[in-house]
Amino acid sequence: MQIPKFKLGLPQRYAAVLLLCFFGQCLWLTAHTSMTQSDYDYARCGREMWEKPSPLAGYFTSCGNMQDGTAAYRVTGLPLTIQRIVLGFAPGATTWEMRHELSYVNIIIRLPFILLGMWLGGGIWWVSRRLFGNLGGFLSLALYCFSPPILVASTHPNNEIIAMWGLFGMVYTAIGVAHAMQGPRNKWRPRIALLAISLGVTATAHIFAAAIGLLLALLLMLYLAEHRRGDVLQVLTIASLAAFGLLFLSYDLRAGALLYVFAGGGARFWISLSGFKYLFSNPFCGGFYAALMVALLFYVAMRRSRYFGNLAPLLCALAILPFITTSVHSQPWLWALPFLFTFVGGVFADLFETRQRKYFLGLSGALLLVQISLCLYNLQQITQ
Length: 384
Fold this sequence. Notes:
two-stranded antiparallel sheet; globular
């Protein structure tokens, strides 16, 4: 099977410009905010996972056993471990000591999360563009790149950005697997492998996010697979076993540490309206809120917008928003944002195809300018 050639046309260049704007904002935030105690904890415990076992008997690291997943710790600690080896620091050198020796530790521990944020933005653009065309893809990506909650999540060590990346990838990979199941079996394998990886990565970040993603994948695949519905459970079982192996590997194959994720209540949840409150409580997301309200209004009013491409991200977001975790810190409302950006891009793409195309293009441009202005003002306020 030949790999299709990547063409750097105008759409790809425009998307790259938006992602570079996102990268610049993240660098600005990083340069103007100092490391917090949470950053040090992620770095210290992440280095312990890579370099040595915990000095405390019965615990995975000196931070204890991880309930919220190892992904963010390992992503934060890996660059420091590589840096220590390359530059010849002693194995016992602390992150604090390394910080005073190297002025760029701040960017080193945050850069992987910035790149993950860019990767997720690229994924949103790719999905939205394939579903809704260039204009829908650009609108979804622009709202993502100038979203203050996304920028904050991309500039500090945390599991939320990893869970967002994995959950969004899992849902749309599952949709891709369901479509591939209508064809020959040899085309299933690469997509099943991607599904297993995205499920495993999500589980290493938040086990509850992986559970939500697995349920959404099951429902979407059962809906789309049609005559292949009997194979859906088999495919998801294979992907789940591979993902469990990746999760076990992230705990250095230590069964006790892995079992604590389940015994410690890492997946306990409750239903609450607080997710909606957090989603709509940021005054610097006014442009996005207005665009979302317009999209919801026209989704209900306009029949041409009520199709699976728009319905799927909306239902995924609505399924995620009511949940809160009760034993670990997490922000499920953040996990819903990529789906909402995709939904807004899809509905506006339909509006751009109506007779009032110019008016809706002007409206979307105005809303984007409002959101960009609010986002940049927020960056200025944070870094003062």
